[in-house]
Amino acid sequence: MQINTDLIKHKQRIYIGGTNGVDEIFELVKFVLDHVNKPADFFTVGADNTLTDAPVVFIKGGDELDGDDAIFHQLDIHILLLHRIKDKLPKGYDTIDAYVAQYEKLADSLPKAGTFIFNVDDNMATLIGKKEREDVKNIEYSALPSTKTSSGFTFNIGSGAVAVSTSDEKFPKYLAGVQAVLKRIGISDAQILSALKDY
Length: 199
Fold this sequence. Notes:
Layout: E1 12-17, H1 22-35, E2 41-44, E3 56-60, E4 65-66, E5 69-70, E6 79-82, H2 96-108, E7 115-119, H3 123-129, E8 137-141, E9 146-148, E10 152-157, E11 160-165, H4 171-183, H5 189-196
Parallel strand pairs: 1-3, 1-6, 2-3, 6-7, 7-8
Antiparallel strand pairs: 4-5, 9-10, 10-11
């Protein structure tokens, strides 16, 4: 499969990867950016995508093999967020080691001044993330501190608190990834807090 990278080559390219939590983080990023009116595009490999002149694009998908390499190697990403590698693997992989190797190769290909953001609670993501790469910034995250409520969680973010209604027990981990990646494009804790009040 060949990706038409001409559509995204002039944008800052941010890839959200793993086998768990990708869709949730992707959608939560979109929710926050829509709320704060920050222009960004959202690109799913293999889908019909509508793109604008936004300077940033968030990408998911493309971890399937095409020959010896995962499709996502065509993307030349600047920032990689790796949330969790577990459970069912994409088509073409015989072992989890082969899948992890593709993400390690992707991290190794990050450009100078690139960023690798990883979930420190995931052993595989941490294994890749702890490796030193020249001029690449490694940022780890773990579940945001929260208080469980009858309808979800209460978070203290920045100088404020917000209650979020959700039945997803993993939401604090997703939100931590969202916070880490959005900081890289200038979104503050106050803006995230404001968005979550309408979640």
